[in-house]
Amino acid sequence: SVRADQAENLALLDLDVQLSSPLTGPAAERHVVCRFAWHENEDVEIRRSLHTQSVATERGRFTAPHFIEVASPPARTGAAGAADAVTILTGGMPWHVRSSAHVLDTLLFVGGARARRRLAVGVGLDRPWDRALALLAGDPGCAPGTTVPSHVRLTVHETVIEGGRLLAARVGLLESAGRAGEVRLEWAVDVVRATPCDLAGRPRADTGVTIEGRALVAHLGQYEWLHLDLVFNA
User: Residue range 126-136: average pLDDT?
Assistant: First the structure.
């Protein structure tokens, strides 16, 4: 199915593939793909995601688990040109094949008989890396109504829910655009306590956060992933 996400300026592709029999044989020859194609007379450049960058590639088979851009070559546009690029958010699917000059296949699965996948397509996306991370994260399922800055990804590690109410959570704030500074998150419920911690849950004394009612204010460095233990007044 295809549906529009107007808030993110994306077309979401939800794919549910069921084969009559499981795939067998070499993965390079026996696989299921989602095919993208454009006009054969168009001169385009393929760029794949590499870490946080968009890198041109001429390979026939390549990896891009986050996104692929199909865009006019820089020689013609004079820039890397997000404004005219069609971006495919690959939803964690790593392998892609340039089947011909104007056809690109994303491998959905290479074994079994059924799989569900979600991809997305957008035009002129600013910071496709952020959009790719958001697609992979999906709905964080933590306090609906939370407002998060556009360059911060909210990751949820553990939650405590009783009677449908969120009482506590361990979350991460990941700065994903290389912009250090103060960030502010608004929650749908009052925050009682916020304790910075490491991945094992041990409290950290080298950083702090400020609680302002339903808001949290913290300082994030470039690409910092700050973990917090939160208690809510639900």
Answer: 82
